[in-house]
Amino acid sequence: MASSSSSSLSRVVVKSSDNNLFVVNKKVASQSQLLKQCIDNMEEKGTNDVILIPLSNVTSNILTLVLEYCEKHADFADDDNNNQELKQWDHEFLKKFDYATLNSLTMAADYMVTKSLLNLCCQFIADSIKDLTVQQIRQIFDIKNDFTPQEEADIKNENAWAFR
Amino acid sequence: SSTTINDLFDELLIEIFARLGSYEIVIRSKLVSKHLLSLLSNPKFVIEYLKHKSNLPLHKKEQQPHGQIPSRKVFSCFNLSLNFLPCWSWFEVVTTYKDLVLCLDLSKEKDHDNHHQDPYLNEREGNIDCRLRVVVAHPIPRRTTGRSVDDHDPYKILNLMVYCSENSLWKKIHLRVPLSIPKRNHVESLGFKGVLCKGMVCIRLIAHYGMFNPFDVTPNTNTNTNISDEDELEARKMRPPCFPHGRKNLECDERLISIYNSYIVIPPNPARNRHGAVNV
Fold first, then answer.
1. Number of helical (H) and strand (E) elements in chain B, helices listed first
2. Are residues A80 and A146 in the same domain?
3. B54 at the A interface (CB within 8 A)?
4. A42 and A105: one domain?
5. Quick one: DSSP state of residue B212?
């Protein structure tokens, strides 16, 4: 529409891999470098139409969560004073999820280039596995042990100091 | 459909495990699966791990056993602040072996406005002071020892701080390295390479290889200086190896040590420092 005086867009539409549409305002979308890049490209071309950005790797469930995160962080973007509050929110936000969701969220954050969310997820997962035994790590991430007992013994032997 | 950790891209796995605070957990995690084992044994991972400054042993006071000199103190006497890692660009990865990386700390070089102060280039300076920590080496001149600097001394002393992964302790080591190189030819390329693994350090000074085992300490008898808390070792001479291009292997005490194709030159001008990529 020609009513807008500048060529900047106010919102974009993001499509999840299962074809749901999400209307996102620009400030929120800018939390993701991927979306920001798309918007910048369109603005350079001088388009005023609402643009559609398909995200083929992110399901609606996960996209909802990423957008929730982006929304919160966009609110705080201009405010340095609420760092502590935001950190608290981040922690509460991730605490709700199981590992499968966390992993998907991490991948989505990576795909959408939302660096702060990626850092947050990786640190959160790292913190939560640091006190676990090997067996617990396998269970949580659903990994099969593909070592033979001999191989397992060899690794333990080689790094004996870590298995005291 | 649930996502397992196996679906995570390797880079993300590296991101996650690089954030583990203790290297013990990393090693224990190697038992999880073969894929994780190969990923966590990769030098790429180690480099990533070292970039997280909280992972440096020096930042962990609780790792200092009672009665030991805290490494913090050790390092303050070398005039090195502990927050050096943020200027990562001043660290050159020299080489890696399994879980360990050897880096050269070049940050001091910035302060050298002329090359005569470069410890590597000052030929009259009989001693070279290098440090190894997790494995960071740092060259500074060593001037205040009781040792007289003999022009004809065929040895150079490498003063190293060695981080022993076995017991999370730092060890101060003076390594005497044979120096029988025609001086003129090597003015610009005097440097060293080394790997440290499981207490084993391999130092390469130009074409000369010295190897020693810091746990196998034989005190040097012909010195009057008090080195009670330090170990002086003589590098065992090794035949000059002829390596093919690329990865290089050395054998020592039945251990195979691979030196990856990296090359450090300390030229007069730090801007000309260069090294090859670390092959992974």
1. 5, 13
2. no
3. no
4. yes
5. E
